[in-house]
Design goal:
The protein has 285 residues and is an all-alpha fold. It folds into 2 domains: 6-56; 64-280, Penicillin binding protein transpeptidase fold, CATH 1.10.3810. α6 packs parallel to α12, α6 (107-117) packs across α14 and α12 (224-233) crosses α14 (252-267). 68% of the residues lie in helices and 2% in strands. The longest helix has 33 residues, at 31-63. The chain has helices spanning 6-14, 16-29, 31-63, 71-86, 91-96, 107-117, 129-142, 152-161, 168-184, 187-197, 207-215, 224-233, 237-246, 252-267, 273-280, and strands spanning 199-201, 204-205. It is elongated. The protein has a two-stranded antiparallel ribbon.
Amino acid sequence: MFRIKDEYLNDLETNPWKRLRNRIIRVAVSPYHLVKSIFMFTGALVWFAATVLFIYVFTLLESLPHFEQNGFAQAKQAATESVQVQLKDNPDGFKQYKWVGIDQINRELLYAIVMSEDGDFFTHQGIDYDALISALGENIKRREWSFGASTITQQTVKNIYLENNKTLYRKLKELLVTKRLEQALSKNEILELYLNIVEFGPDIYGVEQAAQYYFKQPASKLNAAQGAFLAILMPSPRKYHFTVYQNQYLAKRHKRKYRRILQDMRFKEYISPVQYQKYLNWRFF
């Protein structure tokens, strides 16, 4: 049997580089040692990756807003500040801005906007997973991250707490904060936040300011027809302020949306059939 000379063994004990080289050779020529080394190396990589992932997730969760016992007051303060930031170049616009409680918003106006933006708002838990998966598939098909399918809670979170870029990372943060907000606040509290920060035109934020600007009435007096009109402006408020309101023109797609909102409200009995017929022919201009 082949034997290693004692002089060579002594040299290995004193020379770490030769010892390492010998170990590599032994691993390379022995299947058992090779497999064992691969498993050890892979295991170390898995543990390292898991540790990095844990630190990343922990840091991410800690960086997101927490809602304590005074969750609504905290969220309302953040919402007001977010509007103030949007109006930083128009101090007079912020002076005209007025927060109103949900009990000061006409129910027809409220339901018209809900039917337009998120018909299942009162039944889901903040995230419409079916719509989210469908939107993700559409994004992949188009090879762009435009997303969509955001619920009222998600829109509220995005407008108050997050930047406006369209990335997977931002969407992940949006989903996490959405779940926290739904757990901390009631549906009415979330809806009050939303209706007071949504934009309806150039420097026009919240339903109270929109009601005064477009109809010269408080939000408590607006009906379903007027609420549906405001809902038409919401997807692109600055653009539609000019093309719809100032030009006094409702395109066919806007008329279809207007009719659909009223139909949904009638179906859910938010308005009566008589009101539905009345509002269908409502004159805005």
